[in-house]
Amino acid sequence: MIDIRDLTLGYPGVTVLEIPELTVADGALTYLLGLNGTGKTTLLRSICGVITPALGTIQVDGTLVRAHHTTPATLGLHIDYRAFDPRHTARRHLRWITRARGLPAGRVGDVLEIVGLARVADRRLGHYSLGMLQRVGIAAALLSEPRTLLLDEPLNGLDIAGIRWIRELLRDLADAGTCVLVATHLLDEVERNADHIVILGNRRILADQPFAHLMDTLGPGETSLEDVYLRIADLPTDIASGTAS
Question: Which domain holds residue 91?
Answer without folding.
Answer: 79-145
